[in-house]
Amino acid sequence: MLDSKRPIPRDQAGRHPGLALAQWRNRLIASPRFQALAQRLLPGRWIARRHARRLFDLTAGFVYSQVTAALVESGLLRTLADMPLTLDQAAGAACLTPHATRTLLLAAASLDLTQHVGEHWTLGVRGAALVATPGLEAMIRHHRLFYADLADPLALLRGSGGGALASLWDYAPGSDPADARTYSELMSATQPMVAAQALAAYRFARHRRLLDIGGGSGAFLRAVGESVPGLALGLFDRPQVIAATAAEDGIARHPGDFRHDPLPAGYDLHSLVRVLHDHDDEPALAILAASRAALSPGGRLLIVEPMAAPGKAPEGHAYFGLYLTAMRSGRPRTPDEIRAMLRAAGFSKSVQRPTPLPLVASCLVATV
Ligand SMILES: C[S@@+](CC[C@H](N)C(=O)[O-])C[C@H]1O[C@@H](n2cnc3c(N)ncnc32)[C@H](O)[C@@H]1O
């Protein structure tokens, strides 16, 4: 039997054996002789092309994002979803010259966002999927702030640049409630897909009362309430966020600050949806401890958010790693990292429940 605790043999300098292998591979890839050989052999040519494509996509990804943003912000995406347009009609709808419109539509067609059929333009496969995905257009518009911060990525990482995204997040006491409302609206727009992951992963009907901690405008609670009618619902968020949202029948409202205030008792299920990763380790642990303190024995905490996977899944460490850096708070965590924090906060056990689209959200269930 393999002993997983057995130490991995290291070289004389104390380095992991995998490092030498990775260095050998990297030298091979960089060698002109190896590259020439790969071009001559058919499988090698195929692999080289695939890597070249991926490398090009990495280099050009920002351009693709901006083509998509132009399609959304010009209104063309929505108009093409309603009806096919000739080039002149599209130019009129987008308030662009026919030449500029053609440039945009051709660029979008190369990304499967649009399609040229006869004399008309319509949506391509990805364009149709984009329109059908709730909240994605709102997210693309919101990325204007994020990409402004990313214009100098090193300044962002050094903490000397950015600030556009953080200003939206920072609705501390005294700030304009309109900012809290803008952010909550974005969160609500992207919420249906997240709620769908939680509903597919967890049987809420086994509980009596659900408290959504940092629940924003209550979109998650409304989605769960529609699927599980008997469940009593409670919303905990900052006072200015609660004040900025419409009073909902049947949802108990608890204004407060989860870093300092105790959470209300009497709920047998808590949820933290896209909340934990917004916070650095110390406040994140305080939130988990507050949940643990307010839950009775047998109570559960559901953590729903996109989680990181080391070396894989770029939505984790690449997207959220940089997004949360721009937010100036929090970090993406792996399920194992969160489980360790849950243990430190006093939860007796936690399990991961598979979700249909981990890219949107993964789900951990912790028991008191
Ligand atoms: C990223 S949003 C997520 C909103 C919602 N759960 C969702 O997924 O759409 C984070 C939420 O946590 C709330 N929040 C942040 N800090 C808080 C604090 N100290 N106390 C209470 N709520 C807080 C914010 O107001 C916001 O509604």
Automatic annotation (TrEMBL):
The keyword Methyltransferase applies. The keyword S-adenosyl-L-methionine applies. Residues 168-348 form the O-methyltransferase C-terminal domain. InterPro entries: COMT-like (IPR016461), COMT_C (IPR001077), SAM-dependent_MTases_sf (IPR029063), WH-like_DNA-bd_sf (IPR036388). Coiled coil: none annotated. One of its GO terms (biological process) is methylation. GO terms for molecular function: methyltransferase activity. SUPFAM superfamilies: S-adenosyl-L-methionine-dependent methyltransferases. It holds the Pfam family Methyltransf_2. Keywords: Methyltransferase, S-adenosyl-L-methionine, Transferase. It comes from the Bacteria. This is Methyltransferase. It comes from Sphingomonas humi.
